[in-house]
Write a structure and sequence with these properties.
- With 257 residues, the chain is α/β, with parallel strands linked by helices.
- It contains 12 helices and 7 strands.
- The structure holds adenosine-5'-triphosphate and magnesium ion.
- Adenosine-5'-triphosphate binds at residues 18-24, 46, 48, 50, 133, 185-186, 213, 215-216, 219-220, 223.
């Protein structure tokens, strides 16, 4: 089987911990890629539907999810346009639980997800997956199909525990460990530890991306405006940080417009 990630880049936002900036990053990274001219699909894999909300769309899939997941109905028809050119969304749906159940019942999750993603490679150069917090079979599958798994970490000792657990899980699984990349999230430079980690991350984070995302109230405003940051705060420091994060990744994995 030819992995779909050979045809299209797949960036997943994943962390065992909740509330660390996965969704904010998924939305803004996808938006930055689209603004750079890369046809991009943002797939909201979290039933909380926060990414769906933040691009101004309604949650819910039109067709019965069991059919979609068994590929009896094309999942490609479920995508919706966003206000940003080149940025489409596959909205969240409460039925995502069924995808987890299917995988629990012994399906090879990575194979299933890979097949679901396959048709998108005709229309998109990049898929960004916004994952729910915690480990699940779905998360395992995501990690195995993604080109890059980005893990936002708030500078704090406890974040390192979560990071070590994720690395241990990657090591146990059949995953390419190189795909897992941490980056600093919600960085508040008034705080000593945040400054120190920004200048020199702890050795266990040696694969850390260079770009960190600052703590910013502009990011919190996304849920009010229901748009990515660049649409309502184009000159904000945080917008620039997401742009740099995008450029760093695009250079790293050679995403083609
Ligand atoms: N860099 C930031 N600065 C300030 N607030 C932020 C930042 N990133 C995210 N937030 C806010 O923190 C909250 C959690 O962010 P977000 O939803 O992106 O986290 P998450 O990891 O996706 O959470 P969950 O695990 O629940 O899916 C949101 O209210 C968001 O607006
Ligand atoms: Mg989220």
């Amino acid at each position: 089987m030819e992995r779909v990630s050979r045809l299209m880049d797949i960036i997943a936002l994943h962390n065992l911990k909740g509330g660390v900036g996965k969704t904010a990053t998924a939305v803004n990274l996808a938006d930055q890629a689209a603004r750079a001219g890369v046809p991009t699909l943002l797939w909201d894999l979290d039933a909380q539907a926060a990414a769906t909300w933040c691009v101004g769309a309604a949650p819910g899939l039109a067709r019965p999810p069991a059919k979609l997941f068994r590929r009896k109905s094309p999942i490609g028809r479920e995508t919706v346009r966003t206000r940003q050119t080149y940025l489409d969304l596959l909205p969240a749906d409460g039925s995502l639980r069924q995808l987890d159940d299917l995988i629990d019942k012994g399906k090879d999750g990575a194979r299933l997800l890979d097949r679901l993603l396959q048709p998108f490679s005709e229309n998109y150069g990049l898929v960004v997956l916004d994952c729910p917090p915690s480990f699940s079979r779905l998360a395992d599958a995501v990690v195995r199909v993604a080109t890059r798994v980005l893990c936002p970490l708030i500078p704090a000792p406890l974040s390192l525990n979560a990071w070590r657990q994720m690395v241990a899980r990657f090591d146990r699984g059949r995953y390419g460990r190189d795909t897992l990349r941490p980056f600093l999230s919600m960085v508040d430079r008034r705080r000593g530890l945040h400054r120190r980690w920004s200048e020199a991350p702890p050795t266990s984070l040696r694969h850390c991306l260079r770009t960190g995302i600052p703590y910013s109230t502009d990011i919190e405003q996304m849920s009010v405006h229901r748009q990515p940051l660049a649409a309502f705060a184009p000159r904000a420091t945080a917008t620039e940080a997401y742009r740099r994060l995008w450029l760093e990744l695009a250079g790293d994995i050679e995403i083609r417009p």
